[in-house]
Design brief:
The protein is an alpha/beta fold. Helix content is about 30%, strand content about 25%. The strands form 3 sheets. Strands 1-4-7-10 form a 4-stranded parallel β-sheet, with no helix packed on it. Strands 2-5-8 form a 3-stranded parallel β-sheet, with no helix packed on it. A 3-stranded parallel β-sheet has the order 3-6-9, with no helix packed on it. The chain is globular and about 50 Å long.
Length: about 110
């Protein structure tokens, strides 16, 4: 397949952006995983958009949350000591949105 020089430059710029972003995403996830209230065995969260008050979020074993999730706790706004609990063996798809004014529990 023949590529002209513009296409090669665009492809190169995209690769450079991926290389630069990747360590930042990894660092962002590393920080989140240590701030969560609980993260079960073999569980993970994809590239998330917004997660507030991670210390109030508890994720069970072997649960997976896909990319672009938004999990927000509003305990400061509501004055309620809330928690977001996601059970064991849960698979939550792309673009999940949880806005928690009170406690929310998703079972196993």
């Amino acid at each position: 397949m023949f590529y002209d020089w513009r296409h090669i430059i665009v492809m190169s710029i995209q690769k450079v952006k991926e290389i630069i972003k990747h360590p930042l995403k990894a660092r962002k996830k590393y920080i989140l995983y240590h701030q969560l209230g609980g993260l079960g065995f073999n569980s993970d969260i994809g590239n998330f958009d917004v997660i507030t008050e991670p210390q109030r979020i508890f994720i069970g074993d072997e649960s997976h949350i896909m990319d672009h999730c938004r999990i927000q706790s509003y305990s400061a706004l509501t004055g309620i000591n809330n928690k977001v609990k996601i059970g064991n063996h849960c698979y939550i798809g792309y673009y999940l949105t949880i806005l928690a004014g009170e406690s929310i529990t998703i079972g196993d």
